Amino acid sequence: MNNKILKHLWKIAKPAELDIYDFDLFYNGFVADYCYTEEDGVWHGKLENTTDLVLFEADTETEIESSFHNAVDGYIEMCANIGKKPIMFGNFKE
């Protein structure tokens, strides 16, 4: 899946007001975008390189990386519990 499609999916999965800030995180081969919403004062994120929808959030920017790591670890654990291989295209490194 190319970056144009990924960005389209990200825009579908996040409210439009999240366009204020846009950052990337990398962990265990996964990459995520995260943004800040001024309206609700929350940082929101989404894994980019999987076809499964994996979202995460945090109250502060310092907590977002931990929330991202927990989301990735939880996704991998959930896949193992149901006997599914985690879907990851590309292997992103920082």
Describe the structure.
By secondary structure, the protein is α+β, with helices and mostly antiparallel strands. The chain has one domain. It has helices at 3-13, 61-82, and strands at residues 23-27, 30-37, 42-47, 55-58. It has a 4-stranded antiparallel beta sheet, covered by helices on one side.
Provide key terms for this protein.
single chain; 94 residues; alpha+beta; four-stranded antiparallel β-sheet; 4 strands; 24% strand; globular; disordered N terminus
Tell me briefly what this model is.
This protein has helices spanning 3-13, 61-82, and strands at residues 23-27, 30-37, 42-47, 55-58.
**Number of separate strands:** 4
**Kindly state the mean pLDDT as a whole number?**
80
Shape: globular
Class derived from helix and strand content: alpha+beta
Secondary structure topology:
Layout lengths: L2 H11 L9 E5 L2 E8 L4 E6 L7 E4 L2 H22 L12
Antiparallel strand pairs: 1-2, 2-3, 3-4
